[in-house]
Design goal:
There is one protein chain. The protein has 123 residues and is of the alpha+beta class. The protein has one domain: Roll (Thiol Ester Dehydrase, Chain A). The chain is 16% helix and 47% strand. A 6-stranded antiparallel beta sheet has the order 1-2-4-5-6-3, with helices on one face. The protein is globular and about 45 Å long.
Length: 123
């Protein structure tokens, strides 16, 4: 993570050519699946909430509840660096709503609004 505060954060993901999806998505033309781009945004969001609320006990987990307004505007390939900007829009108890945009070289490549719930793994 490059930075975060109580309401926003910026994560970094270095897209490597040895990631599991490279061989099949697509052969000889690897493109990072969009669902993994959204997952990277969600992991950035969960880190912000967990760090903000002190959930560092290893027993809490973030789970998607909705994904909406998802757009992919450019392809992401091995060698790219994803810069993941996430903002907390709303929190109601353990439900959190976020907006996230992923960038490569300053160009937006993915954009999504999503909600997640943070719960102990035992529940």
């Amino acid at each position: 993570f490059r930075q975060y505060d109580e309401h926003s954060g910026v994560g970094i993901h270095y897209v490597r050519n040895d990631e599991f999806w490279c061989a099949g998505h697509f052969p000889d033309n690897p493109i990072m699946p969009g669902v993994l781009q959204v997952e990277a945004l969600a992991q950035t969001a969960c880190f912000i909430v967990m760090a903000r609320q002190g959930y560092n006990d290893g027993k809490s987990m973030g789970y998607f509840t909705t994904m909406e307004r998802i757009k992919f505007t450019h392809m992401v390939r091995p060698g790219d660096v994803l810069e993941l900007h996430v903002e907390l829009l709303m929190q109601k108890m353990s439900l959190h709503k976020f907006h996230g945009t992923a960038y490569v070289d300053g160009v937006p490549v993915a954009d999504a609004t999503f909600t997640a719930i943070l719960q102990h793994k035992d529940n």
